[in-house]
Write a structure and sequence with these properties.
The protein is of the alpha+beta class and 323 residues long. The protein has two domains: 189 residues, Heat Shock Protein 90; 107 residues, 2-Layer Sandwich (Ribosomal Protein S5, domain 2). Helices cover 33% and strands 28% of the residues. The strands form four sheets. Strands 5-4-3-6-2-1-7-8 form an eight-stranded mixed beta sheet. A five-stranded mixed beta sheet has the order 9-10-15-12-13, with helices on both faces. β7 and β8 form a beta hairpin. α1 packs across α4, α2 packs parallel to α6 and α9 runs parallel beside α10. The radius of gyration is 20 Å and the shape is elongated. The termini are far apart. About 5% of the residues have low confidence. Bound molecules: adenosine-5'-diphosphate and magnesium ion. It comes from Dorea hominis. Belongs to the DNA mismatch repair MutL/HexB family. Keywords: DNA damage, DNA repair, Endonuclease, Hydrolase, Nuclease. This is DNA mismatch repair protein MutL. One of its GO terms (molecular function) is endonuclease activity.
């Protein structure tokens, strides 16, 4: 079992940011209103992910760390989780296989919380402890028992910037959750969780971008868009500022990048990489679920239709037309 978990971990857990992604997604699934992520040395030596969600009952703690023992029943076409498709129920077991994990968790119903320690897939401790509602993970020494993996990690600065980028995307995709990110003792991001996307954009990108946003709202046959696109004068050096979320998840799609960039290019020749932050809600049947789990690439069944819809919506927003 430990060997299998270690192999599975090789596919799910690539670097500190993959651990943070899995644990924060769990925190979101647990109904948390606030999530704090703290890392040291790029997350390689230390990561703390704390939430105020539903917690895990003591009787379920050990189970949660078993492969495929997930409590959630999800259909293959459950788009909500498309980004983590392929490793459903594998995150905790995988993380525990390749690091030293300490978890403190408490449900509202319990008076005492539970402290659980597991390292390299081997359980070390399970005991009662005083705790507040929610779950805190401490992850130490990532890949301490997988030297080959550890060798492939980049510098702490690079690994920390991956975590930072991820936290930014998480904050933008969930304005209703307060996210804090602390790197080497310094707070890097702290959103209010008041549900206002524009406030998050202001917090992350500052005044200039926030002052130049065009609302993007669209709804038609199975696809809706909601968010903001940058005024044409705001243009960036790469695709990093083209943010979009599909059914609440950060994924990538070449069709969507192209629709965005083509609409801007046709509007005004000089805008190669626009700024965008918007949510796409789309019926599951329009999406190909055969997606690579870590690359987060998504395919649509009708590429042309998605392209046309997006292009049209952005073009209209740029021209100030109602759709
Ligand atoms: P999955 O998320 O696919 O179910 P995971 O290995 O990520 O698999 O998590 C296993 C289970 O542990 C979850 O289904 C959930 O019941 C529980 N769990 C994990 N993290 C949390 C959390 N932060 N709060 C509450 N429950 C959690
Ligand atoms: Mg999970």
């Amino acid at each position: 079992q430990i060997t299998i978990d270690k192999i599975a971990a090789g596919e799910v857990i690539e670097r500190p940011a993959s651990v943070v992604k899995e644990l924060v997604e769990n925190a979101i699934d647990a109904g948390s209103g606030s999530v704090t992520v703290e890392i040291k040395e790029g997350g390689i030596s230390y990561m703390r992910i704390a939430d105020n969600g539903c917690g895990i009952a003591r009787d379920d703690v050990q189970n949660a760390f078993l492969r495929h023992s997930t409590s959630k029943i999800r259909a293959a076409e459950d788009l909500e989780h498309i980004a983590s498709l392929g490793f459903r129920g594998e995150a905790l077991s995988s993380i525990a296989a390749v690091s030293q994990v300490e978890m403190i968790t408490k449900t509202k119903e319990q008076l005492l919380g539970t402290r659980y320690q597991i390292a390299g897939g081997k359980e070390e401790e399970l005991e009662d402890t005083g705790a507040s509602d929610g779950t805190t993970f401490l992850i130490r020494q990532l890949f301490y028992n997988v030297p080959a993996r550890r060798k492939f990690l980049k510098t702490p600065i690079t690994e920390a910037s991956h975590v930072g980028d991820l936290m930014t995307r998480l904050a933008l995709s969930h304005p209703e959750i307060s996210f804090q990110f602390i790197n080497n003792g310094q707070s890097r991001l702290h959103t209010s969780g008041n549900g206002n996307l524009k406030d998050v954009i202001y917090h992350v990108y500052g005044r200039e971008i926030t002052a130049n946003l065009i609302p993007l709202e669209y709804k038609n046959n199975g696809l809706s868009l909601s968010g903001y696109i940058g005024a044409p004068l705001i243009s960036r050096g790469n695709r990093n500022f083209e943010n979009y979320f599909i059914n609440g998840r950060y994924v990538k799609s070449n069709i969507i990048y192209r629709a965005i960039e083509d609409a801007y290019k046709d509007f005004s020749m000089q805008h190669k990489f626009p700024f965008t932050v918007f949510h796409i809600t789309i019926d599951g049947e329009h999406v190909d679920v055969n997606v690579h789990p870590t690359k987060m690439e998504l395919r649509f069944n009708n590429q042309q239709e998605v392209y046309n819809t997006l292009y049209e919506a952005i073009d209209s927003a740029l021209h100030g037309r109602e759709l």
